[in-house]
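tool_log.txt
---
The assistant was asked to compare two proteins side by side. It first ran the structure predictor on the initial sequence, then on the second. Raw inputs and outputs are pasted verbatim so the downstream comparison step can read them without reformatting.
(1)
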Amino acid sequence: MVRIGEQMVLRVPRRWSATQYLAKELDWLPRLQGLPLAVPVLRHRSCLRDDLPFGIFDWIEGDLANPAKIADPVAVAQSLADF
């Protein structure tokens, strides 16, 4: 990931073998926008040489998800299931 200013981030695979994972992320993140949690908004999607995907997303400030920091895991699970 490469930050673009304060608001966005560029995602480009570092290894050719990782292109399939980023391609899936580019496909799925827009579908997850209704989740009751912050999901990066895809602002631009394209390919560099020979089908090497990249995406530009809104930056979400925060830490990695940590189950130990969830006060009510049952409520979180229910809100995700309701999606």
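(2)
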Amino acid sequence: MIRATAKLIMAATLLFFLSLTSLSAQTADNSPGGFDLRQHEGNAWVDSVFNSLSLKERIAQSMVIRTFSNRDRAFYDSISRIIIKYNIGGLCFFQGDPQQQAQLTKYWQVLSETLLLITIDAEWGLGMRLKNAWSFPKQMTLGAVTDNELIYKMAYKIGEHCKSIGTQMNFAPVVDINSNPANPVINFRSFGEDPQQVAIKGAAYIRGLQDAGVMACAKHFPGHGDTDSDSHYTLPLLNHSRQVIDSIDLVPFRAAMAAHVSGLMTAHLYIPALDARKDMATSISDKAIDSLMKQVMGFEGLAITDALDMKGVTAAHQIGEIEKMAYLAGNDILLLPLAINAAINKIIKAIDQGEISREEVDARCRKILTYKYITGLNTFDYDDIDIDKVPALVNDAESELITRQIYEQAVTIVKNQRDLLPLQRLDTLRIASVAIGSSAVSAFQKTLELYAPVTHFQAGDAPTAAEISTLRKHLQDYNLIIISLESPRLLPRNNYSVTQAALQLIAEIKSLPSHTVLDIFGNAYLLKSFADNKDLDAIVMSYENNDLVKDVSAQMLFGATG
């Protein structure tokens, strides 16, 4: 207790001085195969740390708890108390700011008796969770890229961003095969529907991230792509046969293993072909994890649960029992446990009752410590994170360039009747642009006018019948109308938030005698809304809804990119 109190005083003092410190970022083993666990057996640092831990602390190394960097001091103190009391394995950061997260990481690393594994969900970069940090393209967009080296470069850059704020593991990439367009949770987060392409692109992401010195975690084992419900709120049923699981769902996970992925995240799914026991999620099933993942497939890295506070497991099982079941099933990391003390006590009781051996508990702790060593935590110093440089490091020019290059490859001309695109003979065109979902001239419209005179119109997400009629009259004097659909959301609820009124406006415009181009800034599955597209001369799929892709897409219409 004296030792813990001294560390708390030291950490509180350091919290005051955090903003004054600035030195180089930590290093890690970036050589090919550096994240191959077998290359780091018998490590003296691992042995030293392991031997300093009690049984409870060895179990607690499997616990990675939820935290934020946008809360108040009372919240931060509550996290500090957990770190001191249990000597937990790590933290998973959610919403906040990168500079504040870096400060808190330094604070908690100094406070912790055993260095913490700092993790985050940053599939498309830190901007997925943090404000004031760069967001790269989503994985659906990456699925349209032909040069997978761009995926590698993007993941490497994400790794650099993670390291700059002291993060050792990114829970990415998603390697689920999104074979169900109605999937409410994976969807645009997947590379696509082709198992081989998902495997190739996932491996490129993994190599990039880990070559930057940050652990990758492929998810959601054994495959969450063909579900129509969200495991955050229920336990989805996946009725795939074992043959389908082996030949389709597991293909990207095998590729991830070949790329020496550090972790596989286990999904909260009910898959009778793997384990038919009532309410038995794969994340807490020994048949899915210990048997299939570890014994059959030979995975030697970290088996990591999906969040244990999700309804996919909490709806049918008691907290404390959930954590014990997940641990006994073979998981090395219990992500976002709800009852640390109860879980540790239940696991110790399971040891006493012979449900799991002390040797297995020790082996899991050693594995976690070995990965901490691989990422450079053995040489960590609180000065390793340069707070002052964080804003520039996570919003650098190279990240914008890589993002632009990805969009230039990904933006797709789906239909191009009579080779209308790229637009030519501009002197013969009277061009109007209609931005649906924009209340002012959009970035797309601003780029259009760099190439030709364009008259701009805007329409809301749900234009009224009177507004549609008025707009139709205004457009009759133009011989080319470019419609930009800028209202979509990426998830399928309510037709990706594209209203019937918006679809009616598009139908009215395409009925005019002018040539019509539709540019969709949203989910590729929106194309089903335009299956009857005979009156549209050209359709462009731009995948996302931000100013950078709008600039790229507008330029492509004139042949300046693509």
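---
observation on (2): The chain has two domains: 2-19+35-398, 411-557. The first helix runs from residue 2 to 17.
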